[in-house]
Write a structure and sequence with these properties.
Blueprint: E1 15-16, E2 31-32, E3 37-38, E4 44-52, E5 55-64, H1 65-68, E6 73-74, E7 91-95, E8 98-102
Antiparallel strand pairs: 1-2, 3-4, 4-5, 6-7, 7-8
Length: 110
C-alpha cells in the first residue's frame, strides 16, 4: 500500500524527500526540490534536459507530473561521453510511472 511518508512518482524532482522534520512529522511537511517551480496554474514542475537522437542537449524544459507521463525520461546522473551521448547501450528510464531499459535513441528527456 501507499504510506503517508512514501515518495509518490508525481513528486520526483518536485518535492525534496530529505529536507523534512524528524519525529512524528517526518514526511508530512514538504519542501520544494532545488529545481522545482510552480507554473501559472499552481502545479509543480521540474526541470529536464531535452534529448535528441540519443544526445543530451543544453535545452531545459519544465514539465508537470501530468506532462512527464507522456515522455521517456532517463535519470539525471546517467554517464555521458564527451559529445553528451549516453555511454551505455541500454538506459534505465521512467515512462508512464514504470521503470524499464531502452536504447538511448528513444530517450526524450533527462
Amino acid at each position: 500500500g501507499f504510506e503517508v511518508r512514501d515518495v509518490h512518482a508525481t513528486q520526483y524532482g518536485r518535492v525534496c524527500p530529505i529536507e523534512t522534520p524528524e519525529g512524528p512529522n517526518i514526511g508530512l511537511i514538504n519542501s520544494l526540490a532545488c529545481y522545482a517551480r510552480t507554473n501559472e496554474y499552481g502545479f509543480l514542475e521540474t526541470a529536464y534536459r531535452k534529448v535528441v537522437d540519443g544526445k543530451v542537449t543544453e535545452e531545459v524544459e519544465y514539465l508537470s507530473a501530468i506532462e512527464e507521463g507522456r515522455y521517456v525520461i532517463a535519470q539525471a546522473n546517467y554517464a555521458l561521453n564527451a559529445m553528451n551521448e549516453f555511454k551505455a547501450d541500454l538506459v534505465s528510464v521512467r515512462f508512464q510511472n514504470e521503470f524499464t531499459m531502452i536504447t538511448p535513441d528513444k530517450v526524450q528527456y533527462m
